[in-house]
């Protein structure tokens, strides 16, 4: 059973894609992000297919020796599988924090 894909996961994957160096690794992460938006409604798609795409991204990153990306993608998988609490996940990746700090400045 996987947790539904959400905005926090999407933002984290966008950060991971920026961290990736090799084009194949970047492309496999973008495949997962595109899949999240491929549904008919505005809800993000998740489930087994998203897990499969993230496992492919993790494999590509390991093949290109991008170990930091392997770890980040594994965190995404752990989040989907419920091993990470949402607040812990968001705090670890500073998701939403930049937005709130810029709101405080203005």
Task: For this entry, give a set of tags.
mainly alpha, globular, single chain, 70% helix
Describe this structure in words.
The protein is mostly helical and 106 residues long. The protein has one domain. It is built from 6 helices and no strands. It has helices spanning 7-19, 23-36, 47-63, 67-80, 86-92, 97-105. α1 (7-19) runs antiparallel to α2 and α1 packs antiparallel against α4 (67-80). It is globular, with a radius of gyration of 14 Å. The relative contact order is 0.19. Mean pLDDT is 88; it is low at 99-106.
Number of helices: 6
Report the span from N to C terminus: 42 Å
**Number of structural units classed as domains:** 1
What shape does the CA trace take?
globular
- The secondary structure category is mainly alpha
Would you tell me the overall average pLDDT? Answer: 88
Number of beta-strand segments: 0
Major sheet summary line: none
Q: Give the helix proportion (percent range).
A: 55-70%
Order of helical and strand elements: HHHHHH
What is the C-alpha radius of gyration, as a whole number of Å? 14 Å
State which percent range the strand residues make up.
Answer: under 5%
């Amino acid at each position: 059973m996987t947790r539904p894909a959400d905005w926090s996961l999407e933002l984290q994957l966008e950060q991971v894609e920026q961290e990736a160096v090799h084009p194949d690794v970047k492309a496999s992460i973008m495949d997962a992000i595109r899949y999240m938006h491929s549904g008919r409604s505005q809800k993000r798609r998740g489930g087994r297919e998203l897990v499969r795409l993230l496992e492919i991204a993790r494999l590509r990153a390991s093949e290109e020796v991008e170990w930091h990306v392997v770890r980040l993608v594994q965190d995404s998988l752990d989040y989907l599988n419920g091993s990470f609490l949402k607040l812990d996940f968001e705090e670890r990746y500073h998701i939403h924090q930049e937005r709130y700090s810029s709101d405080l400045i203005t």
